[in-house]
Design goal:
125 residues, alpha+beta, Ubiquitin-like (UB roll), 7 strands, 18% helix, binds FE2/S2 (inorganic) cluster
Length: 125
């Protein structure tokens, strides 16, 4: 079964590498590994589980002059259901809902209260 390496970056904790199958959400893999991440609705309608993609394997290889550009979250994850809690511009800025996000590539994702604060509350809650 295909799986991907997802590195979680959280403030105050060492980076944690998850092995996530393509049918498993990143939150499910984190819980299986004993990593505690905040979550509430588990269906993409709040922003409690939000993270931000900070790196995608294979994106912009060999082009070091684009360090200011944010990785394309669509290259890193697909969704089990529509991520209602995120606006299009938030998805374009790399934000992902870990409770419904299925990996599509090896990637690095930042999570924690500061990422949650950047996105704010969902209009669907
Ligand atoms: S826990 Fe609500 S969107 Fe993920």
């Amino acid at each position: 079964m295909t799986s991907y390496e997802v590195v979680l970056e959280r403030p105050g904790s060492p980076d944690h590498t998850l092995e996530v199958s393509k049918r498993e959400t990143i939150l499910e893999a984190a819980r299986r590994d004993g990593v505690r991440l905040p979550a509430d609705c588990l269906k993409g309608t709040c922003t409690t589980c939000v993270g931000r993609v900070v790196g995608v394997e294979g994106e912009d290889d060999g082009d070091d002059e684009t360090t200011d550009s944010r990785p394309d979250a669509a290259l890193a994850v697909d969704y089990r259901r529509p991520p209602q809690a995120l606006a299009g511009h938030e998805r374009a800025d790399g934000y992902v809902l870990l409770c419904i996000a299925l990996p599509r590539a090896d990637c690095r994702i930042e999570a924690g209260p500061q990422v949650r604060a950047e996105v704010g509350d969902s209009p669907w809650r």
